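Example 3.2
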Amino acid sequence: MFEKILVPVDGSETSWRAMEEARKLATAFNSEMVVVNVIQPYNNAALLVVPLDQATISQGNEELTKIGNSVLETAREKMKDFKGKAEFLLEVGHPSERILSVCKEKACTAIVIGSRGLSGIAEFFLGSVSSKVSQYATVPVLIVK
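Structure, written as tokens:
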């Protein structure tokens, strides 16, 4: 049933709790895990209010990549005693879209995701990533609070 479990992590407490729940499921069902962090880069279209020059955008995107890699390194550390197979991916794009794409690309059979991430006020206005993932996923989704 749960051959391969996708777990998006963003460094928030709920994402770490989701990863722990996914690990329990993976252990119980002898499943593989795919841990993914999605960074959403700055671009000129996203900066309608405060336009920035290309050098500033590039520097910001490099910082986001460093942060994403740091989150994945923390995930690796938290998973170091996991006996099963685990893959760690850094993706770039819109979080819910990339999560759903990775789920399909990696043939995941379930998604375990935290209910709230680090997106703050944008989440209030645009809807949470977990809501969008659960709405459009074609596999079972477990939302962890």
